[in-house]
Predict the structure.
Amino acid sequence: MDAPIRVIVHRTRKTTVFLARGNELSEGGVALTAGVELNPGDETEIEFTPPYSRLPIRIRGIVRNRAGHRYGMEFVAADARENEQVDRLRLLLVVLSTN
């Protein structure tokens, strides 16, 4: 995978949106490269628009590991809406893997 991703970081006084590149995608998370300083445990929102779709998927993510500016993000769903987003992502991955 090589796709544009938006990483939304909520800090105490400021919300910042960073552009990133998604490198690997699974139903449990995404590996991405971004010019931002994040640390393991930081919470973000990850947003991207899948191929052949007009609707973006936005999922809460937690930084699980880091090597330079490459991050391993785990998807975490906090409510029914986010669970729907994860289910949509899983369906998309099944469709893409059969094509």
